[in-house]
Amino acid sequence: MRKPFAILGSVAFFIAAPGVVAGLMPWLLSGQYGLPPAPLPLVIVGAALAAVGLGVLLHAFGRFAVEGLGTPAPIAPTDRLVVGGVYRHVRNPMYVAVLSIILGQALIFATWQLAAYAATMGAVMATFVRLYEEPVLLRQHGADYETYRQNVPGWLPRLTPWRRA
User: Fold this and answer.
1) CA distances for 53 relative to 93, 99, 124, angstroms
2) Which domain of life is it from (predicted)?
3) Would you kindly state where each structural domain of the chain is located, as residue ranges?
């Protein structure tokens, strides 16, 4: 895929997937953010968590377009295995980032509904990764993906970046 199409496709998928999961659904579940904010320390921690999550998410989407020459959407996957940038620390940075954004909103509004939604989405994401993404990546990239999977954790980032041999 050409880089401009990869970027355009990634932007469209960003709006369609994490935009809905981490934006629209929390907004709807919280009564369109009609809730009073939590105490200031929770708001600060929640805002930081959501902001860092959004930064990681944007970076990860950019890596797919620029490094992988594709999109995160299963219908327009990358041509190459994406292992640079934040992917050197964690295999699933998009999912971790989306969950961080949702949990950040749960803290900002001190609402158990958003915390429960984050837990539910985390279970859905982990199941999707295990049953679909990992087998597909193993078929597409073989030993390269297996080496990557053995060296980079799926959900809890490693402190030092992994470097391909």
Assistant:
1) 9, 8, 18
2) Bacteria
3) 3-151
